[in-house]
């Protein structure tokens, strides 16, 4: 029994409570426990010291909705047929929330989900706060006032960066407050015997762009943050797909002032997020729930922050596709250990279900790594995939279509660009991915082996055809939404005056 702050006791059970904290666009590198001397993340550092850190964790897609829906279902994006932020997950595909509910846990979601379509619970029994955007593509987007356009891969994101406030930070404050209230209620119910244990997901917006942080956070980093490394592509060696991406997003000539300002703001947002997470972890401890709770922290994808001349996500560079991942379960998982095994968010889903004693998802691609979390010597496949695909009609104006897929296996990462040359990196020898080995004859067998693995069960032409088939349906749904303006469920009401810059950058 654990005594909580109000004097009642929280009963221990054989299986843990589950608290999944899921942030948005947090670079795995920008954390104290990852070795970044500039990052201010004392609460995540404490969580890492009490748990297990997976240093080679990857997302299933370096973009929000495909990554999140894959994490929910433990399936690759192509199997969900969710490749972009406007794709709807079929409500007949079970999620890990369905599995938790089947185990009697009545899972609760507070905050971010980032899905579209009519089903905004996706297996959760209850949802609080909600998303800030409409459930339907075609409904008018939210007004971010002077920060309009700064949350997307657009040069405005860098031009209008610095000291100020975005609505995302305001929203996360509401998410944290609701999370604390939920924890309080769970503690009462457990103490009274009306609940055995709880399962909750806390979905945060931060540190997602806009690159705008409140003055105190921004100023602490303004004069300390440096330029990204490597700052840009090697002269004459930029990959053609990446070159077109940089050109279309208008980031071929980012100034040093822009870069430092946006990077300083991002570090400030990470610090703000860490303080918010600290409030949740402190309340869990104060309520006497920490010892019997599996706390999981991860993000849906990373942030490139100018490395390789890139910003936001959408690529398979480590800064974009690698995610932070920490699991803390006192008395069951070791404290202060790290794992180098290659894992994926779809594996994390399977892991959480095994730990919670919930049924495994049928036809899942993800595999539980709970034994690896327990012991570094446990056997593991040491392999992860990620994909980034879109059709001929695309919001961000990239020419043509993209069917790109990555495999990380052991020390090597191969990126298969359909219609473009592949890339190969040796991450042990070249962790910053400065030297593409795909054209090196000494690595021809590795390229062949990994290419075969990428294409096994994944046909880029079939994926393209499937995406193109959805375009007419999506266009009709958009016209419908424009005309009907259907109500959206589980909405947090963003106000334009939530957003401002303290001073317009020069």
Q: Please, could you describe this protein's structure?
A:
With 506 residues, this protein is an alpha/beta fold. The protein has one domain (2-382): 3-Layer(aba) Sandwich (Alkaline Phosphatase, subunit A). The protein has helices at 42-49, 64-73, 77-80, 96-102, 156-159, 167-192, 215-222, 240-249, 256-286, 318-321, 345-356, 370-374, 444-455, 460-484, and strands at residues 2-3, 9-10, 17-23, 52-58, 108-111, 126-128, 162-165, 199-203, 212-213, 293-299, 322-323, 325-328, 337-344, 383-390, 402-409, 412-417, 423-426, 500-501. Strands 3, 4, 5, 6, 8, 10, 11, 12 and 13 form a nine-stranded mixed β-sheet that branches. Strands 14-15-16-17 form a four-stranded antiparallel β-sheet, covered by helices on one side. Strands 9-7-18 form a three-stranded mixed β-sheet. A hairpin with a 5-residue loop joins β16 and β17 (423-426). It is globular. The N and C termini lie far apart (59 Å).
């Amino acid at each position: 029994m654990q005594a909580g702050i109000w004097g009642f006791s929280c009963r221990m059970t054989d299986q843990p409570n589950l608290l999944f904290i899921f942030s948005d666009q947090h670079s795995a590198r920008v954390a104290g426990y990852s070795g970044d001397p500039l990052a201010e993340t004392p609460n995540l550092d404490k969580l890492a010291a009490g748990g297990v850190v997976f240093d080679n964790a990857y997302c299933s897609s370096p973009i929000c909705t495909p990554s999140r829906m894959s994490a929910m279902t433990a399936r690759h994006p192509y199997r969900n047929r969710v490749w972009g932020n406007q794709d709807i997950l079929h409500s007949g595909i079970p999620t890990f929330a369905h599995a938790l509910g089947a185990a009697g846990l009545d899972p609760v979601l507070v905050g971010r989900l980032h899905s579209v379509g009519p089903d905004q619970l996706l297996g959760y029994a209850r949802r609080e706060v909600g998303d800030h955007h409409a459930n339907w593509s075609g409904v008018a987007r939210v007004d971010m006032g002077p920060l309009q356009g700064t949350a997307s891969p657009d040069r405005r994101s860098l031009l209008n960066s610095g000291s100020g406030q975005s609505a995302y930070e305001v929203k996360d404050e509401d998410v944290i407050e609701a999370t604390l209230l939920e924890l309080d209620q769970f503690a009462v119910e457990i103490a009274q015997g009306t609940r055995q244990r709880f399962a909750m997901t806390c979905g945060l917006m931060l540190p997602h762009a806009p690159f705008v942080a409140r003055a105190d956070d921004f100023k602490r980093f303004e004069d300390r943050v440096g330029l990204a490394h490597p700052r840009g592509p090697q002269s004459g060696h930029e990959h053609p797909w990446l070159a077109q991406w940089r050109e279309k997003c208008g980031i071929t000539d980012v100034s040093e002032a822009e870069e430092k300002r946006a990077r300083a703001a991002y570090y400030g947002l990470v610090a703000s997020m860490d303080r918010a997470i600290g409030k949740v972890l402190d309340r869990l401890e104060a309520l006497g729930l920490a010892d019997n709770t599996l706390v999981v922290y991860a993000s849906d994808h990373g942030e490139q922050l100018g490395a390789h001349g890139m910003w936001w996500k959408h690529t398979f560079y480590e800064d974009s596709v690698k995610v932070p991942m920490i699991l803390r379960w006192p008395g069951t998982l070791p404290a202060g250990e790290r794992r180098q095994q290659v894992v994926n968010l779809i594996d994390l889903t399977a892991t959480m279900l095994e730990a919670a004693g919930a049924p495994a998802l049928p036809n899942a691609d993800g595999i539980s790594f709970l034994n690896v979390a327990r012991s570094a010597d446990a056997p593991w496949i040491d392999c992860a995939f990620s994909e980034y695909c879109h059709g001929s009609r695309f919001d961000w104006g990239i020419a043509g279509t993209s069917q790109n897929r990555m495999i990380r296996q052991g020390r090597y990462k191969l990126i298969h660009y359909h219609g473009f040359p592949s890339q190969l990196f040796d991450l042990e020898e070249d962790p910053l991915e400065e030297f593409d080995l795909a054209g090196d004859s000494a690595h021809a067998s590795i390229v062949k082996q990994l290419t075969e693995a990428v294409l096994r069960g994944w046909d880029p032409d079939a994926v393209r055809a499937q995406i193109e088939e959805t375009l007419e349906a999506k266009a009709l749904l958009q016209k419908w939404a424009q005309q009907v303006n259907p109500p959206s469920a589980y909405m947090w009401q963003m106000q334009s005056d939530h957003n401002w810059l303290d001073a317009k950058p020069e």
